[in-house]
Amino acid sequence: MAAVKRDKRRITLLLYEVENLTVTLLVSWEIEFLQVVEKVKDKLKRLVSSKTMKCFYFNKDKTHDEVKTRKSDSSSSTSTSIAGGGGSGRGSEFNSQTSTTTNTSLHVLSETHSNNLKVFPLDDLKTATNNFSRSLMIGEGGFGGVFRGIIQSPEDSRKKIEIAVKQLSRRGLQGHKEWVTEVNVLGVVDHPNLVKLIGYCAEDDERGIQRLLVYEYVQNRSVQDHLSNRFILTPLPWSTRMKIAQDTARGLAYLHHGLEFQIIFRDFKSSNILLDENWNAKLSDFGLARMGPSDGISHVSTAVVGTIGYAAPEYIQTGHLTAKSDVWSYGIFLYELITGRRPFDRNRPRNEQNILEWIRPHLTDINKFKMIIDPRLEGNYYLKSALKLAAVANRCLMVKAKSRPTMSEVVEMLERIVETSEEVSIDVPLMKSLAPKDAFEATRRERVKRRFVEVLIGVSGCPNLPTWSPKLVTSL
């Protein structure tokens, strides 16, 4: 038995070596992808032919999960921007390491999709950022720093453009693999609601290997920065919040349904949503993204990573990742837009730390519902659209993942809300208890009023708010 355990450990270490070999070769950008594939195949052949492999059944789609959990004591994720100071540190506040299926690596994107990313010499980026001057730093987090710079446009050398350069710290929380993943994802996607990656740099200098990503500069910081009190910023108007809800839904829908393959963001949150000069929202920080499951496979088994308050309960409990995990995170984000509060904030009283626990008692009455709407709006919002936005959020927060809508369906719901928004406050109860006992005791007037509210908040067959009872997950 001891020999079997030793052999199994050898296999684990050898497979880990293969994975590291793949990442290392991919970062050495002079080597073509097919060469990488051949080297990895050769390594796997040697593993399969080894004596230790004869002792165990090997299936590329099934792995043994060895779970380790790292808890964070911070009250919220470190917010750092690749644009005006928003964005994410290394977004995870919890990170349970589990083994992953071999057919979901985003490295395969390079096999069938070429990109037009520019390879920047390190000296050029040093010049653009004044040797990574602290005066040009616009953000800092667990991964390293983000610096503002100016370069010649890769498309027109006569023009100069502003850029944001993310420098990966050798001591940072974002690793080599996340860096490669972000290059692979942003190198093949093209959508107005995804931040644009212009190029990258992987070069040695006197301090060792330098890994940098060069993005378009997105100047109006992150959504989290505008919703929090860390910066003296003008509160986001309600109309802008609705636009952000639409933009982010479109970005996620593109990742889930707009490509030949599916990409699951896995770390959707307000600090990863940047706002440009026209207040268009752009998703950023794809270091934790994964390819979705192949046809016929229900989910991807992967490491549990993300940010406390955003991760779907089934993902936390099982490590099973699907596009519906992103949908849950989006539902949390909608309530963040409505309330202006973080999903999880240890600085608040215990009964208000978790946004879902805090809002639920306020969904029984219209006056209570008004109490959870961001006070910084000072009443300048459309109550009808706020009610309907909450209804969409509730659909996204269904306990059963299969009951949640797709992001394409969410986009359609939001479009209808915007089209039918009226500049009129509606002073009726948000909902009443629909238990049978109450139904018999209710007066005719109350029943009519209740039906009116059901029609008011219904969106494309959206279930009534009383049916929403999300299973709250204890924060890690």
TrEMBL record:
ATP binds at K166. It comes from the Eukaryota. GO terms for cellular component: membrane. It is found in: Membrane. Residues 67-101 are annotated as: Disordered. Gene3D superfamilies: Phosphorylase Kinase, domain 1, Transferase(Phosphotransferase) domain 1. This is non-specific serine/threonine protein kinase. It comes from Eruca vesicaria subsp. sativa (Garden rocket).
